[in-house]
Every structure is written in C-alpha cells, then in structure tokens.
Write a structure and sequence with these properties.
The structure holds two protein chains of two kinds. Chain A contains 18 helices and 16 strands. Chain A is of the alpha+beta class. Chain A is globular and about 60 Å long. Chain B is an alpha/beta fold. Classes of the chains: A alpha+beta, B alpha/beta. Chain A: Belongs to the [NiFe]/[NiFeSe] hydrogenase large subunit family.
C-alpha cells in the first residue's frame, strides 16, 4: 500500500518547512523537502555600500543573526586582507560562541525535546517525566532554561550591545571595548551558566562530560543521573534514536573559532578550536573550489551548477510551469558533487572527538549523534570561552579601520550553530556587485541536484516507519529536528 | 486571552528577542500567568502539520474564537500579486491570504516588528517580493489590510515596531491587553500606530554618551567612545524608542554596543539614502538633526560646544577607553 503525505506547517523549526513523503508498506520510500519562503536577500544586497551588508545580513535570520554578521565581516576583512587586533578576535569569538551555545540550548529545550512529551508516547516508562519537564510552552524546564538563557545573553549586552541584530562585529574587530570591571562581569555570566549546565543539563561537570570517549562510557555515565541530557539519553536508548536519521555520512566543517585572522579562503593552516575539513571515512583537507550550487529542482533561473563566486539568484516570477521538477526555493549545494552534512556533529567528526567518531562508526550520522554532538559542544566551548575572557586586555585596541576597496572578490567562511556558513562577496566600483550565501541548512535540507541525488535530510528520511493513521509521523519529526534546521537562513 | 501567532516573511528574530525577556520564570510563564494562552506559535507549539493546520482552519472559519492575532514578518504580495513567494506550508495557500482571513476574525491585530508593521528590511532595494506591512507600506498607510482596517475591538493594527522588537515592548503590549488595564484606546498609539508606551521616548534619552553629545565630541572611527551622531550615522536623537532607558539583554543597547542607532522602529529605516554607518551631511552639517531642533540653533550650539569642550572629553571621544579620568574635587562636589 502506498500513499503520499505532505507535512506542513512543520513547527518548532526556525522558518517555513514542508516535507512530502512517499510511503510504501509503512516506510518512507522517498522524501522531498520544500523551503516555502523566498525573500531575496542576495538581490537586496546588490548595489549597496559593502559595509551595509553588516546591517542587512543579520536580518536574514533572528536565531543565526550574529553568525551571518560574522560571515559578512570575515568576507569584508578578506576583501582587504585586514588583520584583527587580538582583543577584537577574542571578542568576536565570544560573541559567536554565545549565539551558538544559546541556539543549542534553544534547540534542545524548545524545539527538540517537546516531541517526547506527546500523548503518543504515553505508556513509555519515561513519558510522565518527559511531559512534566519538556512539554511545549508549559514544561517545568522552560521556567529554568529561559531565565538561564536570558542571563547568558547578557554576554551579548556587554560585547555586542544587543541580540539579535547587532553591528558590533566588524571586519576590523568589534565596536565595544571591554573594561577591566566588565571582564569580571563576563566571567560571572560564564560561571553562572556553567553552574546551570552542571546542575540542570548534565548533572556533572563540563570536563567530566567532554571526557566521555566511548559509547559504553556514555551509557554507564547516564544511568540514573539527574540531568536533562542523561534523561534524553535514556529516552534515546529506549526509542533506538541511534538507528534513525543517517544521511550521506560526508561531513563538512569550515572550522570554528579561528585563533588567528579572519575566516577567508586561505585559512586552512590557521588554528581553529574545531578544525576545518571534510570527513568521509577519514579526514580530508577542505578545498573551497569544490563547492558548487545547482538549481535543477528550485524555482530559480539557472543552467549549470556553478561555484558561489559566480552564482546568481533569480527567482521564477511566472514561469513555474517551465520548471515542473522544481519543488523548493532552496538551491542544492554540493562539495565535489557530493551531498554533505554540516553542523555540530560535522564539527566534531572533523575535529576528532572520540565519542562522536565512535557513534558514527557504529551507526552513521543519527538523531542520537547529532544531539549528543550539540550538547558536547556546549561542554567543550564554555571552558574555551572562559579562557578567551581571561585573555582580553583592557586598554589594548579592539578594532582596526577598514578601508573600502574599489574592487575585490572575497569569501567569509564561519561555523554557525547549525554548521558551515559561507558568504561570497564581489565589490566593484566600491559597491556590492554580487553576494552569494550558502547557509548550513542549505546543505542539510538541499533538494535533489541535476543528477537526481537527494539532499541530506531527504536521504535521512528514507526508510523511516510511518504508522497507518499517523499524519505527522514521530520518527520523521525526530529526524527533521535532529538537524536543527534554520529555514530562514536556508533560502534567505 | 487567546493568541494566535503567525510568522510571515521575517527572520524570527522578534520571537528570539521576546524569549530573552528578563523574568524570574521566563517570558512564557509570565505571559501564561497573566492569562495569555498561546494557541499556536510556529517556534513554540507542540502541534505540527495537520494538527496545526486544523487549528488554523478552525480559527479562520470562526469555529475557534480567539482574541489576538500577532504577525511577525513582512507580507509578501509578489510575484505579480500572487503571494507565491510565501506559501503557508502544508496549506497550498499564500500566507497573505491566511493573514487577511485571520485578521478579519481577531479582536486585535498586532504587528510584531518593523517588517509586519511597515515592510522592513525585505522591502529595501527594488522590493522584488512586493513586501509590505499589515497596514503600512513603508510610511504610506495601506499595506496588506488597507488604511481603513479595524479589528473587531475597533482599533487599527497595533504596530510594535523595531528590528527586532525589545522583549519589553511586546510583553507590555500583551499584558496591557490581557490584564485589561484600560490601555489601548486609539489615543494610546502614535502617528505610526505604535504603542506610545515605548515611543514617547527618544533613543537619545539615557544615552550613555550624553557628555560627548553635549560637547559635540564625536567618534571618528568604530569603537571610539565619542558621540556617534556627527560621523557614525547615529539617529538616536530622532528615533522613537526607550532603548537607553530600558536596556537590551540586561545591560546593552546599540549605542552602548558602540554602534549607531539606525532608527529601526521607524518606517523606511531600511533605505536611509546613505551608508548606514556614515552620517549624511551637507556642507559638513548632518542632514538629520535632533528632532524638534531648528538647524540654525544646532549649528550655533555645535560651534559653541565644540569650542568649549574640555580636553578630557575631546581626548576620550577619540579613544576606545578613557585616557583621561574626570578630575577629583577636593572636599567633594559642591
């Protein structure tokens, strides 16, 4: 028996998402992912003053706002080869890390965990607890997480003025010099967040968490432990979340939190907190020239796959009938013509965290591995941030002046919470002549390419069980949300 | 008070900002305790797919009565008036059609953010998506619902404008309605239909750079401590909002963060006609002068105050940290 099921509006993801499934014999046979909103930021940017990109691009996305700023600032810095003073670099990393960790927390508590509180899971041993703690809108955890998140975002108040949508990240550094007293306050915010993470999220110290290197250690550690992450691990073991959600198992990371310089094309040799590279049965060097985008299944004009440096974005206005194979506004990015997955799991695969490598070796990319990677990243990044705050030197500069080049071609490659984010910028006569963006979820929620190869989520959904009377299949929801999609970034 | 929240063509940043509201139990508990019942919110609700769509159909048909429609994001009328640039997922229908239907059922309609109020950032450039606000297209009355639209309770669209909104602006507005304190007669809205509760102030009020402003000791480059008005594009003396009286994220604001106020609560902020981070000038004088101040007065005051600037203020204005401390008066200030 076969049927077609369209799921939308797909809530608790950022932005507009529709998923269409062809189901045969109770399993997903094929999937189509549709990004149903087109706004045209790449067109809006044309002919603007290059620095105006810093006002415009954060407004692509209110949850990856400063990641978009960081990519634009990196591209602008790349356009002139401008170095950043040490303080500006540290402050930029702190700002980006603050957003990324806030997003991981938001994803876990507001977007992902509420699905386990659903009535359909009544009867599972863990359901009553999941319902009390994680239910959408009213779960008791929200009363703890939202205030902790608001306190955490005070880092943004100090370093970036506000969140989202700040102009603090500039090609030459940051606009807000931190004083000695403010260093103390930043550390206080970090210490309070650390205490919240230890007591509520992990039930252990961050260092003990990130030192777990094997799957059996992780299960033993989680046994009977009070903390929302161990509670998730208990649920995941019962539902077999390590066995669903496998995509292409090619993982892409541009490298997160560069220790030096910006994040341009030539930064491979620079040290990142989490390395730059590609994982496919082993680590490969990243080559920016291998990226291309294809519009064969998008409501966009275009013929051949092109590198984003030459890309354009022109929406169909009335010619929809001419593109019968199109089903989304999203382009199909490929790395060396392969489908790649990006995000916290990709970062840890490339960087080499033993636990994440072990989880993927056992079962491939999965719902479990993606969620574990996000939580581990929180445990790994907070201590690094403490070091960055301590390294700030009040009185030393935070920002260099940027000189507008008359002509330049540049790229900014950063890691947002959801993965690899690239901005390709071309300046002519002192104005933006071309601006192309590939966001993390453009990779993950890509449509088919010209060769008919489905994108990462489209692959991950195949084979999932769908009950006869299920209109919004649970397994499908877990897999979709395990990517923490940001649909507003996807198409932009 | 039942609230239906739709996300049109925006970035979701107003919701993200709202979630950062400072409250002991978090903003969702705060709203719930005041009787605000979020029937559906795309980023927060359990319901997805058919469950969410059934609820929207019931609300649109009148079978499910509700009080408030909050719309976040601009309304996309393109291409060619079809609304196809944003189809409500799963429904096959443009979001603008849903908004028109639901607005007709709501007791109050609230635009959350400058996109749904006026069109916002997406309407800049050539505005190829034909983006507009609920009841304004930039500074022109009209928008998606038309200038004569009144929600069932009698008010036009309430524009909680800002890019993004400050969480307090949304909380204050929803709570004023939920707790029925008598607020929100039409006289509680300003000329742009924004709640006067946050637009009776200027961003300039409470600006921490006030001493630099007084002496026209201006920042010359990014990260300088000086006033951002003369060179750096700041419109805080013209923009309506309480950003420096009620801080962002506990301690911040745009000017506290070291960069210009771009007047994001005003219609048309997205097309200033000059680079955002530079002040537009004619013959060396900013074209955007402090609100209510005649040009001749400003020129005279600026000349006088520049000539009277203490060395400390002048030097510090061009540095990213104070290089000269305020003097200490023996015996204490008199």
């Amino acid at each position: 028996m076969s049927r077609r099921l369209t799921i939308g509006p797909f809530n608790r993801v950022e932005g507009d998402l529709e998923v269409t499934l062809d189901i045969a014999d109770g399993r997903v046979e094929s999937a189509q992912v549709c990004s149903s909103l087109y706004r045209g930021f790449e067109q809006i940017l044309i002919a603007k003053h290059p620095l105006d990109a810093l006002v415009i691009v954060p407004r692509i996305c209110g949850i990856c706002s400063l990641s978009q700023s960081a990519a634009a600032a990196a591209a602008l810095a790349d356009a002139t080869g401008l170095p950043m003073p040490a303080n500006g670099r540290l402050a930029s990393k702190l700002i980006l890390a603050c957003e990324n960790l806030a997003d991981h927390l938001t994803h876990f508590y507001l977007f992902f965990m509420p699905d386990f509180a659903r009535a359909a899971y009544r009867g599972r041993a863990w359901h009553a607890l999941a319902e009390r703690r994680f239910q959408a809108d009213v779960g008791e955890a929200l009363r703890e997480v939202l205030p902790a998140r608001a306190d955490w975002l005070r880092l943004m108040g100090y370093l970036a003025g506000k969140w989202p949508h700040s102009l603090a990240l500039q090609p030459g550094g940051t606009t807000r010099a931190i004083t000695a007293t403010e260093k103390v306050r930043l550390l206080t915010v970090l210490r309070e967040f650390r205490a919240f993470l230890s007591s509520r999220v992990f039930g252990d110290t961050l260092e003990n968490v990130s030192a777990l290197h094997r799957a059996d250690q992780l299960s033993a550690w989680a046994q009977g432990r009070a903390g929302d992450f161990p509670r998730f691990l208990d649920i995941a073991a019962d539902l077999g979340l390590e066995r669903i959600g496998r995509a292409s198992d090619t993982f892409l990371s541009y490298g997160a939190y560069a220790q030096q310089g910006g994040a341009g094309r030539q930064d491979d040799h620079r040290e990142h907190l989490f390395a730059r590279g590609v994982w496919r049965d082993g680590v490969l060097a990243f080559d920016e020239a291998l990226i291309s985008e294809d519009v064969a299944h998008a409501w966009l004009f275009g013929e051949q796959p092109v590198h984003p440096r030459e890309g354009e974005t022109r929406p169909l206005i009335a010619e929809f009938a001419d593109q019968p194979d199109a089903y989304t506004w999203c382009k199909a990015p490929r790395y060396g013509s392969r489908v790649a997955e990006t995000g916290a799991l990709a970062r840890q695969m490339v960087d080499g965290h033993p636990l994440l490598r072990a989880l993927v070796a056992a079962n491939g990319g999965s719902v479990l591995a993606r969620v574990v990677a996000r939580l581990f990243e929180i445990a790994l990044v907070v201590p690094a941030m403490e070091g960055w705050v301590r390294a700030l030197t009040p009185g030393e500069p935070f920002c260099h002046q940027w000189q507008l080049p008359d002509q330049a071609s540049a790229v900014g490659l950063v890691e947002a919470a959801r993965g690899a984010l690239g901005h390709w910028l071309h300046i002519e006569r002192g104005r933006i002549a071309r601006y192309q963006i590939i966001a993390p979820t453009t990779w993950n929620f890509s449509p088919r390419d010209a060769g008919g190869v489905p994108g990462a989520l489209e692959q991950a959904l195949v084979g999932l069980p769908v009950g006869e009377d299920e209109s919004v299949p649970l397994a499908v929801q877990h897999v979709v949300r395990s990517f923490d999609p940001c649909m507003v970034c996807t198409v932009h | 008070m039942k609230v239906l929240w739709l996300q049109a063509a925006g970035c979701g940043g107003c919701t993200q900002s709202l979630l950062g509201a400072e409250n002991r139990a978090g903003v969702l508990a705060q709203l719930a305790d005041a009787g605000v019942d979020l029937l559906l919110h795309p980023a927060l609700s359990e319901a997805s797919g058919k469950d969410a769509l059934d609820l929207l159909h019931a609300a649109a048909s009148g079978a499910l009565p509700f009080d408030i429609l909050c719309v976040e994001g601009a309304l996309l009328r393109g291409p060619n008036g079809s609304g196809r640039f944003q189809i409500l997922s799963g429904s096959g229908r443009p979001v603008i059609d849903w908004v028109r239907e639901l607005a007709a059922r709501a007791r109050q309609v609230i635009a959350i953010g400058s996109c749904s109020a006026f069109g916002g950032i997406i309407s800049s450039g050539e505005n190829r998506t034909d983006a507009c606000g609920l009841q304004f297209d930039g500074d022109q009355a009209g928008g998606l619902l038309g200038p004569d639209f009144r929600a069932a309770a009698g008010l036009p669209v309430i524009n909680v404008a800002g890019c993004p909104v400050h969480p307090g602006w949304v909380v204050d507005t929803l709570l004023a309605l939920a707790l029925a304190l008598g607020a929100f007669a039409e006289s509680d809205l300003d000329a742009w239909q924004r709640p006067r509760s946050y637009t009776e102030q200027l961003v300039h009020h409470g600006c921490p750079r006030n001493e630099y402003y007084e002496f026209k000791a201006s920042a010359e480059k990014l990260s300088d401590l000086g006033c951002l008005m003369e060179n750096m594009g700041c419109k805080g003396t013209q923009a309506s909002a309480d950003c420096n009286l009620r801080p962002w994220n506990g301690v911040g604001s745009c000017v506290r963060g070291g960069f210009a106020c771009i007047s994001c609560t005003e219609p048309g902020f997205e097309e200033p006609g000059h680079p955002f981070m530079e002040t537009a000038k004619v013959a060396g004088i900013p074209t955007g002068l402090p609100i209510d101040m005649p040009k001749a007065w400003f020129v005279a005051l600026a000349a006088l105050s520049k000539s009277a600037t203490p060395r400390r203020v002048r030097e510090n204005s061009r540095s990213d940290h104070p290089v000269i401390l305020p003097g200490t008066r023996k015996g204490g200030p008199k």
